[in-house]
Amino acid sequence: ISLLPLQYDLSASTFSPDGRVFQVEYAIKAVENSSTAVGIRCKDGVVFGVEKLVLSKLYEEGSNKRIFNIDRHVGMAVAGLLADARSLSEVSREEASNFRSNYGHDIPLKHLADRVAMYVHAYTLYSAVRPFGCSFILGSYDEDDGPQLYMVDPSGISYGYWGCAIGKARQAAKTEIEKLQMKEMTCRELVKEVAKIIYIVHDEVKDKAFELELSWVGEVTKGRHELVPKDIKEEAEKYAKVSNRSSGNSDEEKKIEWQSLVTATLVGLFSHRIRI
Amino acid sequence: MRLANTSVAVSDERAHTAQSLSGDAYATFIHDLYVEFLIMDSHHSYSQVKGVSTGTTILAVKFNGGVIIGSDSRASMGESYVSSKTINKLIQVHDRIFCCIAGSLADAQAVTKMAKFQLSFHSIQMESPPLVKAAASIMRELCYNNKEELQAGFITAGWDRKKGPQIYVVSLGGMLLSQPYTIGGSGSTYIYGYVDAKFKPDMSLEEATQFSTNALALAMGRDNVSGGVVHLVVITEAEVKHVVVPGNKLPKFHDE
């Protein structure tokens, strides 16, 4: 691996000697800087969860959405440069709308994912434009084909998944997702698990406050992609907070534990020197 | 006198007046004449039913497990010349989807050719057989977007994995409607009573075949621009079967 890109990284139309397109890799890096988004497919639907970092107390709650509706039956959760993601959501909407107009029925998710991935890929071919700096997860539910989940990254590849995560804590999220038996779960159970995963992977030290955005599409919503209703979301967050606290795995708690252990040892060692 | 590329018959008197006009007056004269011409032409074609839906009887019927789509086999030019006695009006647009055509044969062939191409491309992209609704929607888009130039209506019927047997009517202007059974063409006017009375949902294959053959025979018996043989195509999940009932084997009714 060459550590210095040496002029091969200036445009997307250039390969490096070891066969990499650096601009695309840098675009993928941009996604890794953003907060985590998770999508999981279960027996009867798909659930999305996004960790939306609150950068200012002045932000209106619920604004700056990171989950979009593409067609009635398709949802999209994004990570990376938000402006790029918004533009791609418009592209996806147009694709889905044109399909419906021409063929009279809902666009199958695989086809939509392929079309949008082709569009994203086109921006990795020329030096005149830069690649899109966002990954996104598409999910849908259909009576006949069941739930579907696809992820598209800045290189223009789309894969089908049972569960996937994008953003800064995606490795930790993937580990948590792998623990789940999603093929046997229902959407209602999965909503709580997704909330829990977001709470687990959230870094309380580096990123302070965050807002959880949850949405689902499945038999429970009759095939329409919607934000999870307020009461179910609150129940899920409560479950997530409780599980997190009881497992005691968070970094901050570990830090506090370690600090208190050190203090106690020091006090113990020097206690004979304390004068009151 | 000539009006753009059309010849219009006007009285000598009027033509003579036109020659003496100039500028605005002439423009107004031409405009009035054109409006009159449009109204006259639409009346002209309404009085001749054949002008809009020409020489055909077509039908489609849903039965238990499939659809039967059927037509006569006569192509006519004007009201008195049979240009073909054995034409097939049932066009296959995909493995399990057929279209039957009414109206201008040239327009219908052009549309179905385009639809067949688009549908095949769509099906390969989807990596699965197309939905009947998709086929009908493609036809509808073609008919609606080109409604000024085209004069053709279709019945699209077939079988798909998602909704089973379906029938869609795509009319002249681009309307799309789903129906359990439908008839079309000039000969259809004579059999509305018959099909409305005799149709039953979920018929067996034999009942549906008898129903279609009877309906087509009755229409062909009364409509001068429908005739020849009866073409039937039976579409089910398993297969597509083409049945031809020659003229002398058609059911006979009391009029003969």
From TrEMBL, chain A:
Swiss-Prot/TrEMBL keywords: Acetylation, Cytoplasm, Nucleus, Phosphoprotein, Proteasome
Subcellular location: Cytoplasm; Nucleus
Pfam families associated with the record: Proteasome, Proteasome_A_N
Proteasome alpha-type subunits domain location: 8-30
UniProt cross-references to CDD domains, sorted A to Z: proteasome_alpha_type_3
GO CC term (a single one): nucleus
SMART domains linked to this entry: Proteasome_A_N (SM00948)
Family designation: Belongs to the peptidase T1A family.
Subunit structure: The 26S proteasome consists of a 20S proteasome core and two 19S regulatory subunits. The 20S proteasome core is a barrel-shaped complex made of 28 subunits that are arranged in four stacked rings. The two outer rings are each formed by seven alpha subunits, and the two inner rings are formed by seven beta subunits. The proteolytic activity is exerted by three beta-subunits PSMB5, PSMB6 and PSMB7. Interacts with AURKB. Interacts with CDKN1A. Interacts with MDM2 and RB1. Interacts with the C-terminus of TBXA2R isoform 2. Interacts with DNAJB2.
Protein name: Proteasome subunit alpha type
Protein source organism: Sinocyclocheilus rhinocerous
Organism lineage: Eukaryota, Metazoa, Chordata, Craniata, Vertebrata
UniProtKB/TrEMBL annotation, chain B:
Keywords, comma-separated and alphabetical: Cytoplasm, Hydrolase, Nucleus, Protease, Proteasome, Threonine protease
An example molecular function term from Gene Ontology annotations: threonine-type endopeptidase activity
UniProt-listed InterPro entries: Ntn_hydrolases_N, Pept_T1A_subB, Proteasome_bsu_CS, Proteasome_sua/b, Proteasome_suB-type
Biological process terms in GO annotation: proteolysis involved in protein catabolic process
Compartment(s): Cytoplasm; Nucleus
PANTHER family, sorted: ATP-DEPENDENT PROTEASE SUBUNIT HSLV, METALLOPROTEASE TLDD
Lineage, highest ranks first: Eukaryota, Metazoa, Chordata, Craniata, Vertebrata
Subunit annotation: The 26S proteasome consists of a 20S proteasome core and two 19S regulatory subunits. The 20S proteasome core is composed of 28 subunits that are arranged in four stacked rings, resulting in a barrel-shaped structure. The two end rings are each formed by seven alpha subunits, and the two central rings are each formed by seven beta subunits. The catalytic chamber with the active sites is on the inside of the barrel. Component of the proteasome complex.
Protein role: Component of the proteasome, a multicatalytic proteinase complex which is characterized by its ability to cleave peptides with Arg, Phe, Tyr, Leu, and Glu adjacent to the leaving group at neutral or slightly basic pH. The proteasome has an ATP-dependent proteolytic activity.
Protein name as annotated: Proteasome subunit beta
